[in-house]
Write a structure and sequence with these properties.
The protein is α+β, with helices and mostly antiparallel strands. It has helices spanning about 5-10, 70-85, 85-95, 95-110, 115-140, 150-165, 170-180, 185-210, 215-220, 230, 235-250; strands at about 20-25, 25-40, 40-50, 60, 65. Strands 4-3-2-1-5 form a 5-stranded antiparallel sheet. The radius of gyration is 34 Å and the shape is elongated.
Length: about 250
């Protein structure tokens, strides 16, 4: 808790008891500055949202609070038009006087009830308030994000690589069958393909894996009877082919 001496050193834009507008999610709500304090050498305000249960009171900093004036009320309506719903709109459009009158009416009704009935009514109202605010949060949390086509293509390629990922052995076996259908010499094709598989199994640990992948390699091969070309897929085959191109370019 800051003392009065600390408070004097910090400039407070809002006075205790002042009506303000405060951000809660993407919207601005009418609220009251209940109390102000200096925390970490910065002004903090205890905010009570008009018409909300006190359990929603919170300490906020300056960026979330705005003066209650015509300009900021217009901004409130613009945000409401963009992000709001009819349920939220009815709450925001109710001014503080209506909230106060409503509260007074409820208090008057409560006075006529027995103690047990008052407690039950308060509990019921608290649950209704909480459910309404939860519904509001669900609506406010829906944010539309437009993903550019270039990024969508990357996501689709990633999906294809993960969902339809074949092992190097399967890819090379398909290549062999394709070449044999084209009447290529079986012995030559088989020798080339088997040579690529053998080279991959030999080179993968020392030439084709990033440092962070080597521990994964140890886990994958530790208790497996499969060869690396039966475990790894097209991405690592491309690394091998890129390695060939680099080697041939140097030569």
């Amino acid at each position: 808790m800051a003392n009065d001496k600390d408070k004097d050193k910090v400039k407070f834009l809002y006075q205790d008891g002042e009506t303000v507008l405060c951000y809660h999610g993407p919207l601005l709500y009418e609220a009251k500055c209940v109390r102000s304090e200096t925390r970490n050498k910065a002004p903090h305000y205890l905010i009570h949202y008009s018409g909300w249960n006190k359990s929603w009171d919170e300490w906020v900093t300056c960026p979330r609070v705005l003066k209650y004036n015509e300009e900021n009320l217009k901004k409130q309506q613009e945000l409401l038009a963009t992000h709001g719903t009819s349920k939220i709109a009815s709450k925001i459009k109710s001014n503080s006087r209506k909230h106060v009158n409503s509260m007074l009416e409820k208090n008057a009704d409560l006075e006529k009830l027995t103690q047990e009935e008052r407690e039950n009514k308060k509990k019921k109202q608290k649950v209704e308030d909480s459910n309404e605010l939860i519904d509001n949060y669900k609506v406010q949390s829906e944010i539309a994000i437009k993903i550019p086509q270039e990024l969508q293509k990357i996501l689709l390629d990633d999906f294809e690589n993960i969902s339809n990922n074949k092992s190097i052995k399967e890819i090379l076996d398909e290549y062999t069958n394709f070449k044999l259908e084209k009447k290529f010499d079986k012995n030559i094709i088989t020798e080339i393909v088997e040579g690529i598989k053998d080279y991959f199994d030999t080179a993968i640990l020392c030439r084709l894996l990033y440092k962070s992948e080597k521990s994964q390699y140890n886990e994958l091969t530790k208790n497996s009877t499969k060869k690396p070309n039966e475990i790894y897929g097209c991405v690592h085959l491309l690394r091998l082919l890129g390695n060939f191109v680099h080697f041939l370019t140097i030569k």
